[in-house]
Amino acid sequence: MAHKEPIDASGVAEPAPSEITEDDSPLDLLLAHDEESMSLLALWLKENATTFAPVVIQAARQKPGLSPEASCAVLDAMFKKAPADDETMMKLMSECLRVITSRITASIDAEAMGDDHRHDDPLVGPAVAVVAAGRRSNLSEAAVNCLAKQGLGGALVLVRAFDSVRDTLKLYVVRRLKPAVVWDLGENEVASLANSVSKLAESLEGKQNAAALKFLAALAPNEHSSSAEINPTDPIETGEYVFHASWGTGNVLKVSDETITIDFGCYGKRTLLRKLATLRHAV
Asked: Which terminus, N or C, of the chain has the lesser number of Cβ atoms within 10 Å?
C-alpha cells in the first residue's frame, strides 16, 4: 500500500513513514508488490512474530492471494522466529513457496520466448536463502518436497540452493529432483548441478554414493542434449563446463593447443589430448 511522500517548504520530498499507520491494513500489505509496502510488511511481521500466521492464511485465501514479494517476506520472518506449530509452519511455507515458484516459472517461460536465458528473476535469490536457512531437518525436507513438485521454478531454486545446504539435504534433493526438469532449465544449470553432485558423491559411500551416481547418469548429455561435439581447434575457456561420455560434467582448468585439463569431480582431474577427446559444450 503506497504512501505519498509529503513535500516540505523547500520542495524536497520528506522520507516515507517508517512505521505502520491505521491506514496500513496487513491484508493489503500481504497483497502488495511495491518496495515501500514490503518494508512496512516486514515491520508488521516482526511486531507480530508469533501471531501473524492466521492473517497470512486469510490473505492466501483471498483473490488474488499473497504476492510473491510478500511471500518472501513471510518466509524470512518465519525462519527468524516460528509463528506457530510445525503443521501451520509447513502450510505457510508450502503456500509461500508455491506463489514464489509460480512467478519464477512464468519468468523462465518468458525468457524462453526471447534471447535471455540467465534465469535472473529477483525472487530466485530470496527463495534460495529460505532453503539454505532451514534450521530444522523436517522443515528443510518439507521445503525440498514442495519445490520438487513446482516445475521449473522449484527446480531452479533447488539447483541454485544446492551448494549452500548441508550434505544430508543435498542427498535429499538428489532423491527428489527430476533430472528431466533440470534439463529444461538449460545446460548451464545442468552443468552447475552435475559438477556439485559429482563432488558430493566423493564424500558418500554405499547406497548414498550409488544414489548420487545414478542421478549423475540421468543428467548425461547423450539422453538430453543435442550439443555439437567440440572440435580440437574450437576455442575453450578456463572455467567453462564440458561433458564427457564416461566422466560426465567437468570444469575446464587449463587449455593449450594440444591438451585440456578438466576437473571431473569424483572422477578426478584429467588431462586429455584435444585431438582425441570427445567433449561437448555445457555452456
From this structure: C
Task: Tell me how many degrees the CA angle 95-100-106 measures, rounded to the nearest 5.
Answer: 125
**Which residues on neighbouring strands pair with residue 273, listed in sequence order?**
259
d(Cα 211, Cα 226) in Å, to the nearest integer? 26
pLDDT in tens, 167-211: 999 999 999 998 888 888 887 888 889 889 988 988 889 999 999
7 has a pLDDT exceeding 60:
no
Query: Residue 6 carries which DSSP code?
Result: P
| Closest to 212 measured CA to CA, from 262, 283, 263, 265 | 265
113-132: b (≥16 Cβ within 10 Å) or e: eeeeeebebebbebbbbbbb
Kindly give the interhelix angle for 187-202 and 167-176, rounded to the nearest 10 degrees. 130
Write out the three cell numbers for 246: 564416461
End-to-end CA distance of the chain: 42
CA distance 35 to 32: 9
Verdict on whether the full-model pTM lies above 0.85: no
**Nearest partner of 53 among 32, 78, 76, judged by Cα:** 78
- Alpha carbon distances (Å) from 106 to 70, 103, 124, 151: 17, 5, 12, 11
DSSP, collapsed to helix, strand or coil, labels residue 268 as coil
Omega of the bond leading into 64 within 30 degrees of 0 (cis) = yes
- Secondary structure (3-state) at 262: strand
Coil, strand, or helix at residue 279? strand
